[in-house]
Design brief:
The protein has helices at residues 58-65, 79-88, 121-127, 153-159. It has 165 residues and is mainly α. The radius of gyration is 21 Å and the shape is flat.
């Protein structure tokens, strides 16, 4: 939504007053919480101690004790579909991720491309003034965008998520 210019425009710039507010980047409200998503795939849902499993994960346990642990969300047996569901809050077939991204089958539910209407949490947080980043295995890039000549529409959306690449 465009904001109204509240400066003053005179004949001479020295007598004018700029208004940078319409161009300011959004800022998260004071006191907004930090958001950290940790995705550990290929370990099994109940394997970690914080979920009652046998694997000792003291650092993950400490983080989980002071945060949120998701236990009722859609997961699949594959990393790309599970990641797309977690990061967008939508079913993996809605995200075009019926399988891992490099095994895309060319149909709407399995094309390996997360559509622009399925915004990731990172995109939503950036729109609210948060800074975002990610580290580790991404595994959501469509195969046709894995070259230097690709148009990279999905990566362009991610670039909006400051520091996400």
């Amino acid at each position: 939504m465009a904001q109204t210019f509240r400066g003053i425009i005179n004949l001479d710039v020295r007598d004018s007053v700029p208004d940078w507010a319409p161009y300011a980047q959004p800022k998260a409200p004071e006191g907004s919480p930090n958001v950290v998503y940790i995705v550990l795939d290929d370990v099994g849902f109940g394997a970690m101690r914080c979920y009652g499993g046998p694997i000792e994960t003291p650092n993950i346990d400490r983080l989980a004790a002071n945060g949120l642990r998701y236990a009722q969300w859609h997961t699949t047996a594959l990393c790309s579909p599970t990641r797309s569901a977690l990061l967008t809050g939508r079913n993996h077939t809605t995200n075009g991720m019926a399988c891992i991204s490099e095994a895309a089958i060319g149909f709407p539910s399995g094309n390996g491309h997360i559509p622009s209407e399925c915004a990731t949490l990172a995109e939503i947080l950036v729109d609210k003034g948060y800074s975002t980043s990610l580290t580790g295995k991404w595994h959501l890039c469509p195969e046709d965008e894995m070259n230097l000549a690709a148009t990279r529409p999905f990566l362009t959306a991610l670039e909006r998520c400051r520091g996400a690449i």
